[in-house]
């Protein structure tokens, strides 16, 4: 068995390219950095002399001091790059490192048994890890990775006294981080150092790390089998995360080719930046608001870079997912008001948490992870209405932030009128509490729903009477309308935004909104697809909210189409019977309007 | 020696931040302070020890304190647990 395994690794060794899943696009060129916990720490158990005790103890103290200053250094870099909110992901490692009781236990053991310090350190820390591993409670398991990380860092420091391998990511140019699996914290911590790309053996497209990497605009490829045993540290590699390929021994020509591609990408980026303030008006004078979808405050930089009419969808799950504890009202307020203050004149649509579904949330207890049908289960507004205190905490934070600018509340996953009425009751309750507490907020804050269930689309005309605006979440709407699990690869083909049922539903929602004088945004993936813009504009959408990297392309389309023509086109599409017809027609219309699309950004934006 | 029992009120259990608060309070006392859960007995002045208890919401822990300030130590820890270890969460 073992032999077979070795053979297959050998086989893989000879292949020059390794294929995985393109999780976050882009190209990274650099040297491989294999995560230290995957390296083997070789040392033996040695007897020491009584006279050496103090020396061994001193070695551990020095090693810990060095690790401590490295951790503080990382913390500083994280705060510089991503803001203070994310600093405390390092806090628990620092307090584990500096546990003085454990230090005493280790020193006693060394003195009594006369053994070398690295052996004793590993022995004692491992006992604690084992105890934690055996505990039944799952959500303490994430602490294990913190303890392991600290253990490995200290051991590497201790060993560096004998040999001189450094465990620090050396500052000699860009590196590509390779590990068996990645956590959101890995991404934040290492991308604030000189890591330009990430590779892991495990993980898929919808995992949090890939969403985070896309958010931070860092190339990532996941699912490369055995990559940590195949690639060697410091090997030259190119990570083509557009195609999901890791290229080994690329050679000067290949590297040159990829540098060209990077250059092209930067050139296009420059054009978009130059035109970031061009108003998003069609050729015949209809204004379409163009806003951005964000997950984290750090993305505001991208929004400012490419220009957008505020935030059309701020997904608030990340702070919940990245923290070890439930965030407090003040922490949430701090995060929300930071965004509002950065864009004080723009609308900021804050969506209340959409946990559950694909964003499992262990912190509420284990019931969430064991659902049979999580997308139809305990998620989003259903959790909020079931746990009012939790909901009110977030609502209070949003309301308090509204004092500093133009904030709107958006409620996801609404499927019944009762749900929106109840949600509004809690908003009122949160307001009443704030009045009692004497904290200011915008009393006329607008409340809308994310239309993403068939029932909300079907009864849009009635829902419109209860809310101030609609936003259509086309990803979930497609999943629920077509009864297709969007994460199931076997039925990938069935998942399609361009199905006549979806187009019809979007039209129905817009009609419901218009007859009640409220506005409609589309914020799902379809809004970020330039090919779909003509159709959406033609259907009568008021705002498109897109990922920041698509602000440039979508602006380009809007400025080069006619609303009148788009309306005619949309009416034609609404009569079509198959998705194939729709797809073909959309593609044809786009090509007609934008021949040689990518080559012509410059002239299109004149 | 003094022995007392208390319940974890935090939704998240004794997680990183509340555990740190507990350890820094315990470290202020001279007495030896242990926390006991089932067959696990750990030093309350050690963060690793406290984490290893994996004390979730609703679980009961025993404090065992012995030393000159044992009574004050046990009482202070129980008081801290009632205040959700300084986390501003509400039930």
Question: What does this entry show, briefly?
Answer:
The complex is a heterodimer of chains A (606) and B (91). In chain A, 49% of the residues lie in helices and 13% in strands.
Description of the molecule:
The complex is a heterodimer of chains A (606) and B (91). With 606 residues, chain A is of the alpha/beta class. Chain A folds into three domains: 15-37 and 169-265, Phosphohistidine domain (Glucose Oxidase, domain 1, 3-Layer(bba) Sandwich); 40-159, Orthogonal Bundle (Enzyme I, Chain A, domain 2); 275-604, TIM Barrel (Alpha-Beta Barrel). Helices cover 49% and strands 13% of the residues of chain A. Chain A has an eight-stranded mixed β-sheet. In chain A, strand 12, helix 16 (417-437) and strand 13 form a beta-alpha-beta unit. In chain A, helix 3 crosses helix 6 and helix 21 crosses helix 23. The longest helix of chain A has 30 residues, at 53-82. The N and C termini of chain A lie far apart (64 Å). By secondary structure, chain B is of the alpha+beta class. Chain B has one domain (2-86): HPr-like (Histidine-containing Protein, Chain: A, 2-Layer Sandwich), CATH 3.30.1340. Chain B is built from three helices and four strands. Chain B has helices at residues 16-26, 47-52, 70-82; strands spanning 2-7, 32-37, 40-43, 60-66. In chain B, strands 1-4-2-3 form a four-stranded antiparallel β-sheet.
């Amino acid at each position: 068995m073992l032999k077979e395994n070795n053979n297959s690794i050998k086989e893989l060794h000879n292949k020059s390219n390794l294929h995985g899943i393109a999780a976050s696009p882009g190209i990274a060129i650099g040297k491989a950095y294999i995560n230290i916990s995957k390296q083997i720490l070789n040392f033996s158990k040695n007897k020491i002399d009584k006279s050496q005790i103090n020396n061994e103890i001193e070695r551990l103290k020095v090693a810990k001091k060095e690790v401590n200053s490295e951790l503080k250094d990382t913390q500083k870099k994280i705060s510089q790059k991503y803001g203070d909110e994310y600093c405390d992901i390092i806090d628990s490692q620092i307090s584990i490192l500096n546990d003085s009781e454990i230090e005493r236990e280790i020193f006693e053991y060394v003195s009594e048994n006369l053994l070398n310090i690295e052996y004793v350190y590993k022995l004692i820390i491992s006992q604690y890890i084992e105890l934690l591993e055996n505990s039944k409670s799952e959500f303490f398991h994430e602490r294990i990775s913190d303890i392991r990380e600290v253990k490995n860092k200290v051991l590497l420091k201790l060993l560096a006294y004998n040999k001189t391998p450094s465990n620090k990511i050396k500052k000699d140019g860009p590196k590509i981080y390779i590990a068996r699996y990645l956590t959101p914290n890995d991404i934040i911590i290492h991308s604030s150092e000189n890591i330009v790309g990430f590779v892991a053996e495990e993980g898929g497209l919808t995992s949090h790390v890939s969403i985070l990497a896309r958010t931070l605009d860092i190339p990532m490829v996941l699912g490369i089998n055995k990559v940590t045993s195949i690639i060697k540290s410091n090997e030259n590699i190119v990570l083509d995360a557009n195609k999901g390929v890791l290229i080994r021994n690329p050679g000067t020509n290949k590297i040159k080719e990829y540098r060209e591609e990077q250059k092209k990408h930067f050139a296009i980026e420059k054009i978009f930046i130059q035109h970031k303030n061009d108003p998003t008006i069609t050729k015949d004078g209809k204004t379409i608001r163009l806003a951005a979808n964000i997950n984290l405050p750090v993305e505001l930089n991208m929004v400012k870079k490419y220009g957008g009419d505020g935030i059309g969808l701020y997904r608030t799950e990340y702070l919940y997912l990245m923290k070890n504890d439930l965030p407090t009202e003040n922490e949430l307020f701090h995060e929300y008001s930071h965004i509002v203050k950065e864009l004080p004149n723009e609308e900021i649509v804050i969506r209340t948490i959409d946990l559950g579904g694909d964003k499992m949330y262990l912190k509420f207890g284990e019931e969430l992870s064991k659902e049979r049908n999580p997308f139809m289960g305990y998620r989003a507004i259903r959790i909020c209405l079931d746990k009012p205190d939790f909901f009110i905490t977030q609502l209070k934070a949003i309301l308090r932030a509204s004092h500093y600018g133009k904030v709107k509340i958006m409620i996801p996953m609404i499927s019944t009128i009762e749900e929106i009425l109840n949600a509004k009751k809690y908003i009122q309750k949160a307001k009443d509490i704030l009045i009692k507490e004497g904290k200011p907020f915008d009393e006329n804050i607008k409340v809308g729903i994310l239309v993403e269930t068939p029932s909300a689309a079907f009864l849009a005309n009635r829902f419109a009477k209860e809310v101030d605006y609609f936003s259509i979440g086309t990803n979930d709407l497609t999943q629920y309308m077509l009864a297709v699990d969007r994460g199931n690869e076997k039925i990938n083909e069935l998942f399609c935004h361009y199905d006549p049922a979806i187009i019809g539903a979007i039209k129905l929602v817009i009609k419901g909104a218009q007859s009640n004088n409220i506005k409609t945004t589309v914020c799902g993936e379809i809004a970020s697809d330039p090919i779909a813009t003509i159709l959406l504009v033609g259907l009568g959408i008021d705002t498109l909210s897109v990922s920041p990297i698509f602000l440039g392309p979508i602006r380009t389309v809007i400025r080069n189409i006619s609303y009148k023509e788009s309306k005619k086109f949309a009416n034609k599409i609404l009569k079509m019977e198959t998705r194939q017809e729709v797809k073909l027609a959309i593609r044809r219309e786009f090509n007609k309007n934008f021949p040689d699309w990518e080559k012509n950004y410059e002239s299109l934006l004149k | 020696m003094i022995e007392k029992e208390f319940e974890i009120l935090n939704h998240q259990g004794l997680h990183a931040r509340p555990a740190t608060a507990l350890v820094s309070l315990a470290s202020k006392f001279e007495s030896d302070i242990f926390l006991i859960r089932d067959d696990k007995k750990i030093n309350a002045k050690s963060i690793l020890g406290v984490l290893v208890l994996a004390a979730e919401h609703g679980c009961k822990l025993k404090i065992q304190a012995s030393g000159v300030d044992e009574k004050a130590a046990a009482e202070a820890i129980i008081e801290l647990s009632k205040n959700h270890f300084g986390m501003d969460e509400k039930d």
